[in-house]
Amino acid sequence: ACAAVASLTVAARMSARPRSSASSRKVVMRAFENELGVQPPLGFWDPLGLSDDGVDAFRRRRSVEFKHGRISMLATMGYITPEITGKWPGYLSPSMGLKFADIPNGLKALSAMPSLGLTQILVFFGFIEYSGGFDDYRTGTPGDYGWKVLTSGDPEEKRRKLNAD
């Protein structure tokens, strides 16, 4: 009985929606049919409607996703590398007598690091965020810096590689 009431409620809501938003949604969906990542069997799939605000906002979010995804990958490597290869020899802060080996891995490093060192890291993060890629979604392909080693100069081959799972 509850399932029947729920399905009737959903059906009523669907029929009560204005037609103009449904037709504009179709236009938005057609605008994304040729984007990278649109693949069979789903095609363009946006159940939450995050792309309803247009192509420019979609491309901006995609460029931000690339940028932050790469930062996350570097952070993961920064966490794993000292565990595998060991830490640098010498002192992180000679004036404090603090060696690189004394700094723990992961988030515990934040409490062991000198405050000036943490400030330098935060300033560097701010510089990276401010200096790179604000308009790359408007002026070209986000994340494409012309390095063709992993992709390709041929557009079809490049698209195939970038769409690979």
UniProtKB/TrEMBL annotation:
Q: Main localization of the protein?
A: plastid
Q: Which InterPro entries match?
A: Chloroa_b-bind
Listed A to Z, the keywords are: Chloroplast, Plastid
- So which domain of life are we looking at? Eukaryota
The Gene Ontology CC terms held by the record are: chloroplast
| Keyword Chloroplast set for record | yes
What would be one Pfam family of this protein?
Chloroa_b-bind
Compartmental location: Plastid, Chloroplast
UniProt keyword annotation of rRNA-binding present: no
What name goes with this protein? Chlorophyll a-b binding protein, chloroplastic
Q: Please name the source species.
A: Strombidinopsis acuminata
